[in-house]
Amino acid sequence: MTEVRFRWPGRASFAIDVPAFRLEQGESVLLLGESGSGKSTLLSLTCGIVAAQAGRIMVAGTDIASLRTGARDRFRAEQIGVIFQQFNLLPYARVLDNILLPLRFAPVRRARAGDGHAEAEKLCESLGLPARVLSSAAGRLSVGQQQRVAVARALIGRPPLIVADEPTSALDAATQDSFLHLLFAQVREAGSSLLMVSHDERLGSRFDRVIHLESVVNTQGADA
Ligand SMILES: Nc1ncnc2c1ncn2[C@@H]1O[C@H](COP(=O)(O)OP(=O)(O)OP(=O)(O)O)[C@@H](O)[C@H]1O
């Protein structure tokens, strides 16, 4: 990410400016910051969910900031597995269909997943989800189980980048630890890079690098 500038439309009070930030292939980085400091905004920029007003955001060799909306959505589906804060599962759809969803918009990733069904089963097993949950509606699962489904959905088809927004915030300390253990094992097996944001410094020991948001991002309030 180079010389990126972003301001929410109609909001003068918050802007971010990233002179330079780089994540190596296969690297895991934890980005720490207070609530409201712009962590989710930075992830949305990285994923192309929102478009920067200036700068370059290179993901797997492509400047995501230069793509138009439709192309950006397709690029994200191919290259990035996203684990949202609230998981964003389709509650009435089966767990299996939730996991396979990103492959629908991503032919290269779909080809890598081979038989998506078999990979979904394998991921669930590795993440400690019993095979029978694959046919349950996602909304019927416990929070911890939904979190694992969100991880399986992000990992299916081994996208080069996994982006995670506070994925452990709803878990107690012991569950957090086992969740992170499983997530890291799967990310390593896939050879993906991992960019996670959190306000919780205790998560840092597992990551290759821990960065404080304010060391890479300048935030300013124009009307402050
Ligand atoms: N969709 C949006 N429209 C307008 N302003 C937004 C939007 N999303 C976030 N903001 C603003 O951007 C600023 C940074 O929010 P952001 O969610 O990126 O912070 P955060 O560090 O992820 O916070 P938290 O840890 O509480 O999730 C806040 O002032 C917030 O009000």
UniProtKB/TrEMBL annotation:
Record-linked InterPro entries: AAA+_ATPase, ABC_transporter-like_ATP-bd, ABC_transporter-like_CS, ABC_transpr_LolD-like, MacB-like_ATP-bd, P-loop_NTPase, Sigma_54_int_dom_ATP-bd_1
GO CC annotation: plasma membrane
Keyword tRNA-binding included in the entry's annotation: no
Entry keyword ATP-binding: yes
Keywords: ATP-binding, Nucleotide-binding, Transport
Domain (ABC transporter) ranges: 1-224
Superkingdom in the source lineage: Bacteria
GO molecular function, one term: transmembrane transporter activity
PROSITE patterns cross-referenced by the UniProt entry: ABC_TRANSPORTER_1, ABC_TRANSPORTER_2, SIGMA54_INTERACT_1
Matching Gene3D superfamilies: P-loop containing nucleotide triphosphate hydrolases
PANTHER family reported in the protein's UniProt record: ATP-BINDING COMPONENT OF ABC TRANSPORTER-RELATED, IMPORT ATP-BINDING PROTEIN
Name listed for the protein in its UniProt record: Putative ABC transport system ATP-binding protein
Organism: Tropicimonas isoalkanivorans
